[in-house]
User: Fold this.
Amino acid sequence: MEEKLNISILKTLAYFDLFQYPLSKEEIHLFLNQQSSAVQLVQELGRLADYRLVFREGPWYSLHDDPVLHEKRRSSNRCAVSMMVLARRISSFLYLFPYVRAIGISGSLSKNCADRSSDIDYFIITRKNRLWICRTLMHLFKKLTFLTGHQKLFCMNYYIDESALCIEEKNIFTATELITLVPVRGRKIMADFFRANGWVRSYLPNYPEMYSDSSYPGTRFSLKRILESIFNNQAGEKLDNYLMRLTTKRWKTKEEENRLNIKGNRMGLKTGKHFSKPNPVFFQDRVISRYQDSLKDLEEKIQSAASAGNPQSFLLKEII
Assistant:
């Protein structure tokens, strides 16, 4: 049975509350787990605000009556505008690396959120069976960026190849990341990627048809073609497999030693012939767990209000 719209609204705000990010009514509508008209949404937001379960500051709504959250959003949106321009330029540069077939901007910047310390995250699709050659070349370049202190601008942390377009982990976290992905280069492959992940609509049915809005066609960069031709053979296949094994071994050691990155988070990489991505255990699963805890807290708050005879009793319903 489809849950009530007010519960869907609260669950949507609860997810983004994990990142201290208030939402506009348009964003709430996009991230709802059920279909709704704009009129219905505005009515329910008004009711929730009247019962002080949702708080509005300017165009944004959150679960907390905290003006600091809204000012933080204003600041992060302003910073994201200039950073997005830079991210698109860097994406176009990274697209020139051998075997890169598509590239998009992910992470917080793809959600229009950034500050001076933010990383720029990239989602990269490579040619089939050449992901590890591609990734190695790009990360060798990234080592040079440490010399100039620009490494945070080149966070190439999620790779898949053309034969593995469907995302393995299907949950609210990956659905949100996928639909907020900003395509930059590789129009056709990006369109194929979105089509292969139609499952996200089971989580976020109000989101418009996914497609790549990239204005860039495939590259004709001659040096890229020449470099690719060097590895388009059996030797290239062996090299790709070797680099996969080498990288997997190195990252396994990092995980076993509980190494932390510069932000203090556990380092981990999940690898396979056709993908290289952050180990979901160290961030994705933690976010989902925190989200479930947040829903439980929200349910307890509503039930407590109802038992006390407060007007919030109209929301008494299982959330989880």
Notes: The first strand starts at residue 23 and ends at 24. DSSP finds ten helices and nine strands in the chain.
